[in-house]
Amino acid sequence: MSDFAAGKIIRGVGGFYYVACADGQIYECRARGGFREAGIRLLVGDDVRIQRTFDSEKAYTGSVIELRPRRNALVRPCVANVDQAVILFAIVRPDPNYNLLDRFLIMMRQQEVPVLICFNKQDIAGEAERAELAGAYERCGYEVLFVSVHEQTGIRELCDRLRGRTSVMAGPSGAGKSSLINLLHPLAGAETGELSRKLARGRNTTRHSELFRIDALSAPEEDGPQTYLCDTPGFTALEVRDVECSELPQYYEEFTPYEPGCRFAGCSHIAEPDCGVKTAVEAGDIARIRYRNYVTIYQDLKNRRPVYGR
Questions:
Q1: Where is average pLDDT lowest: 152-161, 179-188, 229-238?
Q2: Would the pTM of this model clear 0.90, i.e. be above it?
Q3: CA within 13 Å, CB half, 8
Q4: How far is CA 139 from CA 31, 282, 306, in A?
Q5: Mean of the pLDDT values across residues 215-244?
Q6: How many Cα atoms within 13 Å fall on the side-chain side of residue 155?
Q7: The last residue of a domain, from among 18, 40, 67
């Protein structure tokens, strides 16, 4: 016996897709062969139509038979129908890798996804550290929130930004992503790992992207605005792709007002004299954190070996 239902893919592992439907059940599904033949890869976050199968052994199984149109689809991480990205870093323990943060910001801008930067462990960070980070990233147009999962501070403000949206949460291992998701949605059962004492680096306990519906932040009616949070595997390195070094300044919006002060057109803002951007850095109008990251990423792109046959 079978029938049809609409749902959302909340997890995909080993060729199985777990689809949450309006009846409150999660169905373990296989994709029909037509998707593979058409070269279509199903993603976490996809809205789909399934054919449900009811039998005595596995009551909640089925097949994905139709993919509904996507609003968007991220390449890294592979998630569909995303409204915003929440990038979570710890302020301390482990110390944040700002270069990694900037690389992720570049990647999200390439994919035209709004970003909320969230710094965890504010309870063990000083006021000066918080002020420096807020100034550096708010100045270039990003919203910055400070939270403490341990003390549960700043969580209400974060919930306000999550309500009614599908958000992908990403960040390095050890930042507290899984602990935060467990706080927002206790039934998530997301694994948490202790920090490695030797390396002060978190063990990557999330091995796949998974979508959780935060019922407390969702509309009571099924067709109302629902709140979803997607946990993604932690990362320790990101390669900036599809960007030439000459294009990098456009990903640093705070440079734009000062570029008319550069003597040379196409200034790299690194070695040239009379550079408006470097002058702004020295004056404190552009954050040194951001400028140092820019120089490092620029040199990486400049020295990158070309890849042929693309």
A1: 229-238
A2: no
A3: 22
A4: 46, 16, 34
A5: 76
A6: 17
A7: 67
For 205, residues 6+ apart whose C-beta sits below 8 A from its C-beta are 173, 178, 190, 191, 192, 193, 234
The SS3 assignment for 81 reads coil
Instruction: Tell me if 214 sits within 8 A of 228, measured CB to CB.
Output: yes
Q: Look at residue 42 and tell me if it is in a domain.
A: yes
Strand 84-90 relative to strand 166-170: parallel, antiparallel, unpaired? parallel
The domain spanning residue 281 has which CATH number?
1.10.40.50
129, part of any domain: yes
Cα 85 to Cα 78: distance, rounded to the nearest angstrom: 12
The residue length of the chain stands at 310
Residue 40's CATH number: 2.40.50.140
| Residues 27-60 pLDDT 10s | 999 998 888 888 899 999 999 999 988 766 667 8
